[in-house]
Structure formats: C-alpha cells, structure tokens
Amino acid sequence: MTKRSTLNLYQGDGTRLADRGEILPPLEKPVDFTSGSAYLADQGLRDAVNVALTLGDPLLLTGEAGCGKTQLAASIAYEFDLGPPLVFNAKSTSGARDLFYRYDSLRHFHDIQVRGTRELKSVDIRRLRPVASKTSTERRAERPKPVNVLDYIDFQALGLAVLLSKPPEEVAAYLKPRDRDRGPRRSVVLIDEIDKAPRDLPNDLLNEIEEMEFTVPEIGKRFQAEAGYRPIVIITSNTEKNLPEAFLRRCIFYHIEFPNRQRLAEIVRNRINPSDRLNLEEAIDWFLKIREKLRDKKPGTAELLAWITILERAEIDLADPGAVEAIAFTYATLAKTEDDRKLLRDLKF
User: Fold this and answer.
1) Exposed/middle/buried for 312, CB within 10 Å: 0-12, 13-18, 19+?
2) Is there a contact between 138 and 113 (Cβ–Cβ < 8 Å)?
3) DSSP letters spanning 139-190
4) For residue 312, what pLDDT is reported?
5) Under the phi-then-psi rule, with left for phi > 0, alpha for psi from -120 to 50, and beta for the rest, what region is 239?
6) Predicted local confidence at residue 316, as pLDDT
7) Domain extent listing, the chain
8) What are phi and psi of 141, to 5 degrees?
9) Helices and strands in the chain: count of H runs, count of E runs
C-alpha cells in the first residue's frame, strides 16, 4: 500500500482506502500556533507588560479578534517558566465567584439525601434500633462515608493561583493531588473576553483583584495570595461593550493593533519558518487583500499561519497565473461564514 498527502486523501464517494491501495498516514501535526515560545511582542506591549509586573496590577488588553491578545499570557508564562496559564473564559452567566471557585450545591444536596436514605434503611424502624441480624462491624462497613463539602468545590483559575502562592502544607487539603506540590509559586492567570460577562462582574472583582483574596463561605475560609507570589493577571476584551471606569482605573491598559505587512512576515517566519519555495511577501499581500474583502469575520494571525501551512504543503506557487483557482480549496481556513466563502469564491486578483 502507498500513502499520499492528506490534502486529497478523502474522496467522498464511499470508496475505502484499502480498495484504492492506500493507507491513512499518521498525523503530521502543524506547528502549535498558540505556543508562547514564538510570540513576538512589539515595544509598546513589552512596556505595558513590564509596568503591570512592576505595579502588580492586571494588564487589560483590547484589540480585534486574532491580534494576539490571548497568546500573550502563554508568552509570559513561557518566558518566566511558570507552566501553562490558568485560564478563565468569561461567559454571559459568569459571576465574580466563578473566577475563584465553583460550588456544586445540587450534587452536594443530592449526595446528602442519598446518604440519609441509606442510613435510614440500616435501621429497624419498628424498634428504632439496628437490625439484629448484622453485627456492629458489618453495620459500620455499610455506613456511607461522611459527605465532605470540599468534594463539591472546584477552584478556578484565579482561586487556584492564590492557593498555589501559599506554602503547600497550608493548602494541601484544598488542592487536587496534582497541584499539591506545585507551590509556593507565581502563576499567570488569563481572564479571557471579560466583556462577554455581565457588566457587574468587573466591579465585583475590584477588591478581590486588588487584595488578591477571596472567601469560600461554604467552608468558612478566606484565602489571600502571598505578596511575593502574587499572580500575574492578563485580561482580554474584544471591546464588544464598555467596561466600568472604576475597573479600568485599576488596570494597566494596552490596545493591540492588527499587525502590518512587515510584522505579519516576522510573525510567520518566527512561527513556522516557511521554505524558500513560498513567496512569503506575495502570500501576505494575498492575505491582506482577502482580509479587506471579508465582511463577517476577518481572519487573524492564527488563520494566516494555518493558510501559509496549507500553501506550503500543497506546494502552490502564487506567481502562477492559475493560482486563483489552485488555492480556492484553502479558503476554508480563512472564511468562517457562508457569505464570506462566496465572496472569496468570486474574488479576482
């Protein structure tokens, strides 16, 4: 059997690979575009990061989708050898408590009810005493274990970062086994797309982020980060709605512009180092023209990197007069709606 490029492997006609004398090749995974090891920050962004580090304030990043806001957290964590960022993805239902921990009250109540039922069944109701046919040892073995409220609490990104800042012996009981020996340490926390959360959430976080502390009333505990291991907090916003002024005053702010032609070339070379067969400058020109035409969702740097990867593997020469037809199949990496796909289909260069 032979194998060939996966770019034309699937035929869509019900013919099995074995019948065609071919095999499904192992996955050749492209470069991880989200890795922090190859992130390129401009001077303004570097300055903003260092100011936030010096003051211990959160860094608020704005900019259109795909300009590199989220990946900055991975870059900082990589350079400081702090492990992967602890990520909280804001939602329309998110509350301030959710950034620190989640309490599964429904499952907790259910388990208490189940335990109570089991204990009731182990008693002879008529005599209000244990069933005589079982020994005390047997009854103890059957008795459900006490319900521990910690089993229903799951610490989230910012809460976990606070716990990891403390000596392990102080917080081991509250951490999962995999986290118990990781501290004390600093962590990078990414609060992604905070503008998707309810407007009250940023204001509700003011004191907690400034003091870097939170309370878990379900266990009657308050946790505060050790000053020397204060978490590094990165907050992103797509500026879908305005954030409260009081919250903005507590943050270091930076707006990331979408990279220009020269910077896009630097990013591509730094991330995937394309071969000389590809005319990178021409590819970026095509990408920017495509980006201007699209209406619903303009592709970002991640889409550019994916597109360049496909062009390389398909060995497409953009200088070829037939390139417009040749690259039509690659537009699936750039157009994310049917309307945009139709625009690209009719695009002329």
Assistant:
1) middle
2) no
3) HHHHSPPPPPGGGGEEE-HHHHHHHHTS-HHHHGGGS-GGGTTS-S---EEE
4) 86
5) left
6) 81
7) 1-29, 36-100+156-251, 103-149, 258-345
8) -65, -35
9) 14, 11
Neighbour count for residue 215 (Cβ, 10 Å): 15
- Determine which helix (DSSP H) or strand (DSSP E) holds 88, and give its type and residue range: strand 86-89
Say if CB 168 and CB 65 are below 8 A apart. no
> CATH 3.40.50.300: does it fit domain 36-100+156-251?
yes
Average pLDDT of every residue of the chain: 85
**Any idea which residue has 């806001």 for tokens?**
69
Q: Which residue is it, tokens 């570097």?
A: 46
Yes or no: say if 101 and 155 are a contact pair by the CB < 8 Å rule: yes
> Which residue stretches of the chain have pLDDT < 50?
1-3, 120, 123-128, 131
* CB proximity list for 97: less than 8 A, separation 6 or greater: 214
Of the candidates 161, 164, 152, 151, the one whose C-alpha atom is nearest the C-alpha of residue 191 is 161
3-state secondary structure at position 46: helix
CA 50 to chain centre: 23
Residue 21, CA atoms < 13 Å, CB-side half-sphere: 2
pLDDT in tens, 265-284: 999 988 888 888 888 898 99
